């Protein structure tokens, strides 16, 4: 049986020049901890494996095509080190074994890692942090190329909107991704609701979230196309089709929102914003 998966490799911009490199390393460890905690919240949630390695790098592999992107989106939303933003090389595909049965990620060798690394290196080639895009997706299979290119176009628009936000707009935008209600954000930040409304509007927050949802849907669609192609291959006497489709799984966005909501002091008050 084949299992649909997504994978990202994350690097941190200019990490060697970070003001507090030890704190940054500890922060990356904390990031892996909360990601790993998601898998215990719901038995129908996609499986996730993540590892902090090579000083400032994270590698993550997860069930479902949209999971790695969704987790990267929330990592970026609540990222603490604004002078050292993260960027992600992403890919999707299928494996012959489930995510939870993979070996230690330091010892796991698979072509998907190289595919994600190519995306990361393309981003890294942009030396200016201000000009570097936050994510690039790569998938070698030709049936997937059209949606992959469209997804990268949406990611580029999202990147532009992220970079256009002021610090206050970023804070409100990150909280909107969790609360989805202006009144709750205003109460949490002890601000006037009209101030929150203005920051949401000028920061294009609703558009960022709308693009986020659209990318998730495109990746779910990509998985269904991949699933259908695998079924056709199986009919010809080749390997068994992919194990499941996105509709059977609890959405990762819901899990992250629930987890962050119950750990707001850690994510917001303690310094992530």
Could you walk me through the main structural features you see in this protein, from its secondary elements to its overall organization?
It is a single chain. With 273 residues, the protein is an alpha+beta fold. It has ten helices and five strands. The chain has helices at 21-38, 67-77, 111-124, 145-164, 167-179, 182-189, 193-202, 205-235, 252-262, 264-269, and strands at residues 3-12, 48-53, 57-63, 86-95, 135-137. The protein has a five-stranded mixed sheet with strand order 2-3-1-4-5. β2 (48-53) and β3 form a beta hairpin. It is globular, with a radius of gyration of 18 Å.
Jot down its keywords.
single chain; 273 residues; alpha+beta; five-stranded mixed sheet; 5 strands; globular
Please report which band the strand proportion falls in: under 5%, 5-15%, 15-25%, 25-35%, 35-45% or over 45%: 5-15%
Secondary structure class reads alpha+beta
| Proportion of residues in helical segments | 40-55%
Main sheet characteristics: 5 strands, mixed
Strand sequence of the main sheet, in spatial order?
Answer: 2-3-1-4-5
The coarse silhouette is globular
Average residue pLDDT:
87
Tally of alpha and pi helices: 10
Order of helices and strands: EHEEHEHEHHHHHHH
Terminal CA distance reads 43 Å
Find the count of extended strands (DSSP E, 2+ residues): 5
Outline the low-pLDDT stretches. Answer: 239-244
Radius of gyration: 18 Å
Task: Lay out the secondary structure.
Layout (H helix, E strand, L loop, with lengths): L2 E10 L8 H18 L9 E6 L3 E7 L3 H11 L8 E10 L15 H14 L10 E3 L7 H20 L2 H13 L2 H8 L3 H10 L2 H31 L16 H11 L1 H6 L4
Parallel strand pairs: 4-5
Antiparallel strand pairs: 1-3, 1-4, 2-3
Helix pairs in contact: 4-8, 5-7, 6-7
């Amino acid at each position: 049986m084949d299992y649909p998966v997504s994978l990202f490799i994350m690097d941190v911009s200019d990490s060697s020049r970070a003001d507090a490199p030890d704190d940054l390393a500890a922060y990356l460890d904390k990031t892996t901890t909360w990601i790993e905690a998601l898998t215990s919240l719901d038995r129908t949630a996609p499986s996730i494996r993540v590892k902090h390695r090579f000083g400032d790098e994270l590698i993550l592999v997860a069930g479902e095509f949209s999971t790695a992107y969704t987790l990267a989106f929330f990592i970026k939303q609540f990222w603490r080190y604004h002078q050292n933003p993260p960027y992600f090389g992403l890919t999707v595909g299928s494996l012959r074994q489930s995510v939870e049965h993979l070996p230690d990620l330091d010892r796991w060798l698979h072509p998907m890692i190289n595919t994600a690394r190519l995306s990361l290196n393309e981003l890294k080639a942009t030396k200016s942090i201000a000009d570097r895009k936050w994510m690039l997706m790569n998938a070698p299979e030709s049936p997937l190329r059209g949606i992959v290119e469209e997804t990268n176009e949406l990611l580029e628009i999202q990147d532009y909107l992220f970079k256009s936000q002021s610090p206050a707009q970023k804070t409100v935008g990150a909280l909107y991704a969790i609360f989805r209600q202006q009144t709750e954000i205003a109460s949490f930040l002890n601000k006037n609701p009209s101030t929150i409304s203005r920051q949401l509007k000028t920061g294009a927050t609703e558009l960022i979230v709308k693009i986020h949802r659209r990318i998730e849907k495109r990746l779910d669609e990509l998985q269904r196309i991949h699933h259908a192609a695998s079924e056709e291959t199986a009919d010809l006497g080749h390997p068994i089709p992919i194990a499941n489709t996105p509709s059977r799984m609890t959405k990762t966005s819901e899990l992250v929102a629930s987890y962050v909501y119950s750990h707001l002091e850690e994510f917001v008050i303690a310094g992530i914003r």
